[in-house]
Amino acid sequence: MTLPANSSGTPSVQDIRASEVAGLRSEGAILLDVREPVEWNEGHLEGAIHLPQGQVPARIAEAIPDRDAPIVVYCHSGVRSYYASLALQQLGYARVLNLAGGIDAWTRAGLPVVIDAPDAPGADGSDGSRPLTAAQRERYSRQILMSEVGAEGQARLLASRVLIVGAGGLGSPAALYLAAAGVGTLGVVDDDVVDVSNLQRQVLHATDAVGAPKVASARRTINGLNPEVQVVARRARLDSTNVESLIEGYDVILDGTDTFETRYLLNDAAVAARIPVVHASVFRFEGQVTTFVPFEGPCYRCLYPTPPPPELAPACSVVGVLGVVPGIMGTLQANEVLKLLLGIGETLAGRLLVFDALDSTFSEIRLERDPACPTCSDAAVAARAVALPHVAVAHA
Length: 396
Description:
- The chain is an alpha/beta fold.
- The chain has 2 domains: 14-108, Rhodanese-like domain (Oxidized Rhodanese, domain 1); 160-395, Rossmann fold (3-Layer(aba) Sandwich), CATH 3.40.50.720.
- It is 37% helix and 16% strand.
- It contains 17 helices and 13 strands.
- It has an 8-stranded mixed beta sheet with strand order 8-7-6-9-10-11-12-13, with helices on both faces.
- Helix 9 (171-181) packs parallel to helix 10 (214-225), helix 9 packs across helix 15 (324-342) and helix 16 (378-387) crosses helix 17.
- The protein is elongated and about 80 Å long.
- It starts with 13 loop residues before the first strand and ends with a helix.
- Residues 1-10, 117-128 and 388-396 have low confidence and may be disordered.
C-alpha cells in the first residue's frame, strides 16, 4: 500500500470506505479504535485495538510494534482518526488508512459492532451499587478515565449522600462541583432567602431568585446542571432540636455555616454520629479549610475550644469579603469531600490550609487532637457512653 503525497511532498491521509474494510482485514489489516473508553463500551469493531487518540504517540509502539503493518484507524465520525493517522505516519507507520465517516458510517451501512459488558469492578452492580448507564458513562467519562476513580468509584459517588449546611458563599461552589461530579444525593440545609447582596459570591443563585428560599434556588440550579442528582432541600436553621435528624444518613457533611454556635452544634453531633465534616471559613481576603474525621484527628472544638470575642470575628456583612475567596475555599471543600467518598489521596485531617488572596499563597498549620476536648477526647466519649451506650459501640 503506497500512500499518496500532497503538493508539498509530505504524506497525506488516505480514506477507506466501510465496505472495503472486510477485504483489507482478510489481508491482515489491524483495526485501531481511537475513541474514548465510554464510546468503546457502547460498541466497537470486532477485533479492534483500543487506544484513545491522546495516548497514541506514547503507547502505539507497544500496541502495534510492526510499523509496516496495514492499519485502519477509526473514531466516531472520522475526524479524530484523521489526526491520529497523521500522527502514526509521523511516527513511521507506512500503511495507515482512515475509516471515512468512522463507526457512524459503519453502522449506517448495517455492519456489525461488538458491545462488551463493563469489566470494571462494581460497574455491573456486583458490589451492590447500580450499574452505570451509557449516559452516565458519557457524562462522567473524564473521571472514569482516571484509575483512582474508574467505573467503580463513579458508581460509589452516585450512591453517596452529602449534606451541605449553608447554601451561601461556601456551599454554592461546593454544591455545583459535587453535583457535576455525580454525587447522587445532596442535602441542602438553609433557612434564608436570596438577597441581592448574596449574588456577588453565592453562585448557586441568580438574579431572578432574589426573594426565594435559598434551598429552592439551590435545587433548581443543581438539577439544571445535573438532573439525576437528588436534592433534599430542608429550609431550616440548624439547632440543638434538629441537628441529629438533619445529619442522619449522610456520608459526609460540608460545613458552610458562618457562626461559631452553629459550627459547635454541627461538630458535636457529627462526632457522635461518626460522620466526617469538611469545614471552611472566610474573612475578607483570607480563607481556611480543614477536614474533621471523628477519632482519626482533631475536631472543631480541638481547633477552637472557645469562640473568640465578636470583635475578633466580625461577619462578612460588617467587614466584607472578596467574592472569589469563598469560591476557592468551597471548591477545596468539594475536593476534600470527593477524596473522602472515593477513599483516595490524603485529606486535610490534622491540617489547616490557610489561603491569602492578596499574596496568592497557601500555608499549612498542623493540628492535633486535644486530650481534654469536651467532644472527642476519650474521657468525653466515655462520659457520653454512660448515657448513650450505643455511642460506645460505635466508637469501638
